[in-house]
Design goal:
The chain is of the alpha/beta class and 382 residues long. The protein has 16 helices and 7 strands. It has a 7-stranded mixed sheet with strand order 2-1-3-4-5-6-7, with helices on both faces.
Length: 382
C-alpha cells in the first residue's frame, strides 16, 4: 500500500476516533446537567429544612468512592479527584448562591454598626439579599440610635477592635431585651465581656476568618463564641451555615489563644520578612527569575500582606498585651539561635531539626501533600 493511502486510512481512523471523543464529551456535559438537576432538588430540600450547604463527611465519602472507581478503570485517582472536587465545589457555590437569597428569619430587623465599612458592607449585602430589613449606623449617626434600635432583632458591631467595647456600651442601653448582640472582631474575650455587660439580652461573639472579598461564603470559617442565651442566638448561627460557612465553636479564651498563633504571630513573621527584604533593597523581580515555586509562593504571601491596609494589621497584631508578649517570646526564640549561627553548628541544627520534625508528627506528611498540590497549581498558572 502506498504511503499516501496509508496516510488517508490513518486520517480516516483518527477522524472517526475524534468524533467518538466529541460524542463522549457531549455525554459528559449532558450527565453534568442531569447531576445539576438532582443538586437543585437537594437545594430545595435543604432550604425547606434549613440544613447547611457543606457536608464534609459526605464529600470525602464521594471523593473516596470516585478514587476507588478510577483505580478499577485504570485511571489516575489524583486526576479524577481533581475533576470531582471541581464539580462538587461548583455545586456548593450554586447552593450557597441560592441560599444567600433565603433568610432563616426573613423580615427580621438587623442593625450593622459600621455598615459603611468594607466588612460591614459585605454582610449588609448578604442580609439584604436574604430578605432581612437592614439598617446602618455610621460614626455620625449616634444621635439617631434610639430610632435605629426600635424593633431590632439583631445588632452587629463591625467596628475596629479597640472601639468595640465603647460601641457596645453606647448601644446596649437602647437595644430591645430580646435583640441578639454580636460583633465581628478578631479578638473575642474583651469584646464579648463588654457586650455582656452592656446588654442583658442574647449575646454571641463571631469572628469571620476572611475579608470582604470572597464572592461567596462557601467553606469560609466563622468562629462562634457563646455569650448568653445561646438558644436565642441559634438562628444567626444557622443563617451563616445556610450561606455555606463552616461554624467553629470555641470559648473566647481558646479563640484568643489560638488566634495569637494563627493571626498575630503569622502576620508579624511575614511583616518581619518583608521588612528585612526592603531594608536590604533586595531586587524582588530578579530573585523571582531564580526562584523555586516554594519561594514564589512564600514571597506571594509576603507581597499580599503589604498590598492591604496597614491599620487592619496593626489592630490585629497589637490588639492585646497577651499578643505582644507572644511576639516578644517569638523574637527571643529567634535570638536563641544566634550562637548556633555564629558557630556554624550544623550538628546542633540537625538535632533541633529532628526534634521539631518529631513534634510535627503525621502533620508533616499532610503538609507535604497540601503544599505539593499548591506548588503544582502555581507551576500550571505561571
Amino acid at each position: 500500500m502506498k504511503s499516501t493511502e496509508i496516510e488517508k486510512d490513518v486520517n480516516s481512523v483518527l477522524e472517526h476516533l475524534r468524533e467518538n471523543i466529541e460524542e463522549i464529551d457531549r455525554q459528559v456535559v449532558s450527565l453534568l446537567g442531569k447531576r445539576q438537576t438532582v443538586v437543585d432538588k437537594v437545594v430545595d430540600l435543604k432550604k425547606a429544612h434549613n440544613l447547611p450547604v457543606y457536608h464534609p463527611a459526605r464529600e470525602e465519602y464521594l471523593i473516596s468512592n470516585r478514587r476507588s472507581q478510577s483505580r478499577e478503570m485504570g485511571l489516575n485517582p489524583d486526576f479524577i479527584e481533581e475533576i470531582f472536587r471541581s464539580v462538587i465545589r461548583q455545586s456548593r457555590i450554586k447552593q450557597s448562591r441560592d441560599f444567600s437569597r433565603k433568610g432563616v428569619r426573613p423580615g427580621a430587623v438587623v442593625l450593622i454598626v459600621g455598615g459603611h465599612g468594607e466588612m460591614g458592607g459585605y454582610f449588609l449585602r448578604y442580609f439584604r439579599d436574604s430578605g432581612y430589613e437592614v439598617r446602618v449606623m455610621g460614626r455620625h449617626d449616634w444621635e439617631k440610635v434610639e430610632q435605629l434600635c426600635e424593633g431590632l432583632d439583631l445588632a452587629i458591631l463591625s467596628v475596629p477592635i479597640d472601639k468595640t467595647p465603647w460601641a457596645a456600651q453606647k448601644l446596649g442601653a437602647h437595644l430591645p431585651k430580646d435583640c441578639v448582640l454580636t460583633d465581628l472582631t478578631s479578638l473575642k474575650l474583651k469584646p464579648l465581656n463588654a457586650m455582656l455587660e452592656a446588654h442583658e439580652g442574647p449575646v454571641i461573639g463571631l469572628h469571620p476568618l476572611f475579608g470582604p472579598t470572597p464572592a461567596n461564603m462557601d467553606k469560609q470559617i466563622v468562629v462562634m463564641t457563646p455569650g448568653r442565651d445561646e438558644l436565642s442566638c441559634q438562628w444567626l448561627v444557622d443563617q451563616f451555615a445556610a450561606w455555606g460557612a463552616i461554624i467553629v465553636r470555641a470559648t473566647a479564651e481558646e479563640h484568643d489563644d489560638i488566634m495569637g498563633i494563627v493571626q498575630t504571630l503569622r502576620h508579624f513573621a511575614t511583616f518581619a520578612f518583608g521588612q528585612f527584604l526592603a531594608r536590604r533593597r533586595v531586587d524582588i523581580r530578579r530573585t523571582l527569575e531564580f526562584s523555586s515555586p516554594i519561594y514564589r509562593l512564600e514571597l506571594g504571601m509576603v507581597g499580599r500582606l503589604f498590598a492591604q491596609d496597614e491599620s487592619l494589621y496593626s489592630e490585629i497584631i497589637f490588639a492585646s498585651p497577651e499578643r505582644r508578649e507572644l511576639l516578644k517570646d517569638y523574637l527571643k526564640s529567634l535570638n536563641d539561635n544566634l550562637e548556633m549561627i555564629e558557630n556554624g553548628d550544623k550538628e546542633l541544627f540537625k538535632k533541633e531539626f529532628k526534634k521539631i520534625a518529631e513534634w510535627f508528627g503525621p502533620f508533616s506528611e499532610q503538609a507535604m501533600r497540601e503544599s505539593s498540590f499548591m506548588i503544582t497549581k502555581l507551576i500550571e498558572r505561571f
